[in-house]
Specification:
medium-chain fatty acid-CoA ligase activity (chains A, B), alpha/beta, 25 strands, AMP-binding_CS (chains A, B), Rossmann fold, ATP-binding (chains A, B), GMP Synthetase, Chain A, domain 3, 17 helices, 4-stranded parallel sheet, homodimer
Chain lengths: ~575, ~575
């Protein structure tokens, strides 16, 4: 028995790139991509175009291990590049087109990108970023992605210090060889993607994933969401965002129709849903908010399955979503884990619960997907926390979804990929009695007030219940006496008849929270600062709160009453 | 970039055993198993029972790498053992309970099985097999699986030379520790199963699969068949048959309800379908035949998805199946590939075809599942055949589904796991223009009777033992019920005092072969057709047998009793 081990046939590297060859056979005549009024491809065409593009990349000198960057919203080109770049042997570096030029240049330099595909609307940004390169550092070559669906535009004159490939995106496709043999990875551990974590911290970290991770996550993400054959999938999630949670590759498995769009406003999204009969979409909470705050009176004609991640959707949002015809699933993931890793798998027994109880269940992050080996919530010494819904610990993960590491950052890599074999997420959660976990906070978002850990997320959840509150973020304000106190930044809904006062908000919180959790400071803002992916930038608010300095000392009797 | 490679967290071995822990959390309160009128378990109970059983196996001295055998139809115990045996670290050896004692003893000796779980109705067979062990060879310990749903029975007295564990199956479960930490594989390449491809040969081939194969196939088999969450799955496929095509593990992923049954006659199957609202079932073609030839006037209340393999279903069968409410999918697999590897993925465009055309499309074996790396049809020099639907070649496969090899059989392993990196299936097919393949013939003269592969060479070997037989050749005779039955062409020795009858020859075979391998037709010939070099021309005989047509139909009740 010991003599039997892996052989050439069964150790063929696991890679999502094999999905596309198959899609061309099975779904060859079915629609792969729809975009605007004029662009419609079949899976056979998508397959051919990707091969041609990969072939052209090879001709341009792109080799195994090179980094190729892409700066684009979720257009057809963006979709094709998810396959074409790794099919050329290169590592796909999806970039956030909402970055500023400084951040973009830092990332491009760090990644040592050889070539960058740039959507026409991101050209100026890219040129500015390239202009910030020190003169001794090689700039990536630039390929322009034009877009006929846009209003007529002028291509700006290109500076001399930028090496622009003398061909557009479409030109490279036309020129490429449709019989190109795409470059298979030597090992399934070879890198396939490089993603930079969005800037909630100042120094971006380059997350590297391998072919095996992309393969396993693509499959188990389809199963976890029960995606049927040939869904109609709307790209309300930016593909650059953690590789579209693996669904660009997954759509090739099930032969879905990818509805591409660069606009993510409510009228556009609702129009696309109705026109194309969208069945599935992923969305950051902010996109879900946009949809639900839009004045839509008629419910959807057909159920649309929505998968959302990031912060947990408040009960009010979920109830509104369901009433419109959205079937909302909720998960937890991170770039380091190729998208959704833990999801709130629905239990049949919950069907019988009240709407509020249902929402409470659904707001929990849940359990690992079947393809993830292990997930736990652990205390400081690595011990599993009690399954009591109260004891907090850090979420840790084992499985094929875990990244290879951070590019050129051994220290950060070692911090989360520990010697004990676990990946540490940096997220704080409790484990409920039924084995579902619920995130309480990012570790750095925990506020320690008078020695008590308090979760900013819980305080935020209460603030969101207030009828006048649009958005809320709670951070620590330094305090001479308490160490820290919770400080809430709040934006209010438009067209309010009456503006709530600071006192009213505090009293509202006091009805639902223990006294030590009531924000001691309320700051009203027109708009909260956000990252390009729509996440509230707590580090900005934390800085503001830090500069406020300490509150006046409370009287001692208040202190004792708190404990 | 080169410094980033696999780490402890992401190289946690892929194994289907992690599915069960998760099922206990997500589907804890949902039904996992239904059997007869009295047995109903939840996923939480199944999880606990499997842990307890694995714990007891450990207590009995079962260790990593030991082989543990199971001889049972698809009962709850059989299902539990699919998890419990590998959870103890052992290798699961599912055995065909229709084998004869001689074949069973050969396999048990070859596998070096340490312990065998035996269904009460297979006890006599097992005892006879153990009795055939040479005295110097260690017999496996025996655990009896009792069954309260059967009519009262007497346990036969057990011979002294058999080491019977002093506890029944249920006793071992009761005794086990529900908090047992199941034994994780050291590597995903560690063996998880050992299956014998043909139960009856003097040189049996033991197919060994690893945890990784079982994991990947479980996931991609769910996707390929679009299995939704919480299906109701009827065990019309024997679980011993190529590990139930991975669905025992797959059901834990989606929290399905396993409807177990030991009877596979039409009334029972239809009753189970209606009673439990069955949504999915796998079935050998013979089971499908039984269902469709049964006099059922009313169509099914709900669509039942049927996955069938082996010989391709004729158009008439498919049409009848669809009219009753079965949605038939068709695939190709083999024990060496953990079940279905190639399936006839339905194309939307086919919806518009005529019933006959649809059936023609569906009868093709199809394309690889998304989780399989590569499939091709190749000529003698390894070159891909033309996609013309005419040129034949051998089906070759690469991917995680490919076995580790044959146990203690380097020669047979090397014959199919070639140096060029491909697994050679031994099946001859054409590739159609659209990339779907269709099997034309078998290289090794395998006859598929009732879903069981039987080797004509083995039957011939027995015929040759008969003192009156000069020459023998066995080929497939088409059969409406069984797909094929073995048909023997025999020439007799000269100067015989007494000519044997057809009945005598069959009885002679019956003493040495399991029932399904006994030739159902014996044709006496003065001379068998031969090539100039003296080789029997089987293709000539195959044509003769083909022209005989199907045997007279056995009455359905007789048929079902034989399964």
């Amino acid at each position: 028995m010991d003599q039997l081990t892996k052989n050439k046939a069964n150790s063929t590297p696991l890679t999502p790139l094999t999905f596309l060859d198959r899609a061309a056979i099975v779904y060859g005549d079915s629609t792969s991509i729809l975009y605007g009024d004029s662009i419609s491809y079949t899976w056979s065409q998508t397959h051919r175009r990707c091969l041609q593009l990969a072939s052209s990349l090879s001709s341009l000198g792109i080799r195994k291990g090179h980094v190729v960057s892409v700066l684009s919203p979720s257009t057809p080109a963006m979709y094709e590049l998810q396959f074409a770049v790794p099919m050329s042997g290169a590592i796909l570096n999806n970039l956030n087109f909402r970055l500023d030029d400084k951040s973009l240049s830092v990332i491009l330099i760090h990644s040592e990108s050889k070539l960058i595909f740039v959507d026409i609307l991101s050209l100026s940004l890219t040129l500015n970023a390239l202009d910030l390169f020190p003169s001794n550092i090689q700039r990536p070559d630039l390929v322009l992605i034009e877009d006929d669906t846009l209003a007529p535009y002028q291509i700006p004159s290109l500076p001399k210090n930028v090496s622009v490939i003398n061909n557009t995106y479409e030109g490279l496709i036309t020129k490429g060889d449709p019989n190109f043999k795409w470059i298979r990875p030597d090992s399934e551990w070879d890198p396939i993607t490089l993603n930079y974590t969005s800037g909630t911290t100042s120094a971006p970290k380059g997350v590297v994933h391998c072919h095996r991770a992309a393969f396993v996550v693509s499959l188990d993400s389809l199963i976890d969401w029960s995606v049927p054959n040939q869904p109609v999938y709307l790209w309300t999630l930016q593909m650059f965002h953690s590789n579209g949670w693996s669904y660009p590759w997954g759509m090739a498995v099930v032969g879905g129709t990818n509805i591409c769009t660069r606009k993510l406003d409510a009228p556009t999204i609702y129009r696309l849903i109705e026109t194309h009969g969208v069945t599935h979409m992923c969305a950051a909470p902010v996109v879900l908010n946009i949809l639900l705050n839009y004045n839509k009176s008629e419910p959807l004609r057909n159920t649309v399955n929505v998968l959302t991640g990031g912060s947990s959707p408040p009960a009010a949002i979920l109830t509104r979503a369901e009433s419109l015809g959205f079937n909302v699933s909720h998960g937890f993931g991170m770039t380091e884990l190729v998208g959704v890793t833990i999801s709130c798998a629905w239990k049949r027994g919950w069907d019988r619960l009240s709407a509020v109880e249902k929402a409470r269940m659904k707001a929990r992050q849940g359990v690992r997907k079947a393809g993830v080996a292990e997930v736990d919530v652990v205390g400081a010494n690595g011990e599993s926390v009690k399954h009591d819904g109260v004891t907090v610990g850090e979420i840790v993960v084992k499985g094929a979804c875990v990244m290879l590491g951070y590019l050129k950052d051994e220290k950060a890599t070692a911090q989360c990929l520990r010697e004990n074999g676990w990946f540490y997420t940096g997220d704080v959660a409790v484990m409920h009695e039924d084995g579902y976990l619920e995130i309480k906070d990012r570790i750095k978002d925990v506020i320690i007030s008078g020695g008590e850990n308090l979760s900013s997320v819980e305080v935020e959840a209460v603030l969101y219940m207030h009828p006048a509150v649009k958005e809320a973020a709670v951070v620590a304000r330094p305090d001479e006496f308490w160490g820290e106190t919770p400080c809430a930044f709040v934006s209010l809904k438009d067209e309010l008849k009456e503006m709530p006062t600071e006192k009213e908000i505090k009293e509202f919180c006091g009805e639902k929270l223990p006294r030590f959790m009531i924000p001691k400071t309320i700051v009203f803002k027109d708009e909260l600062p956000k990252t390009s992916t729509g996440k509230i930038q707590k580090h900005v608010l934390r800085k503001v709160a830090g500069e406020m300095g300490s509150l006046a000392l409370p009287p001692p009797q208040l202190l004792s009453s708190r404990i």
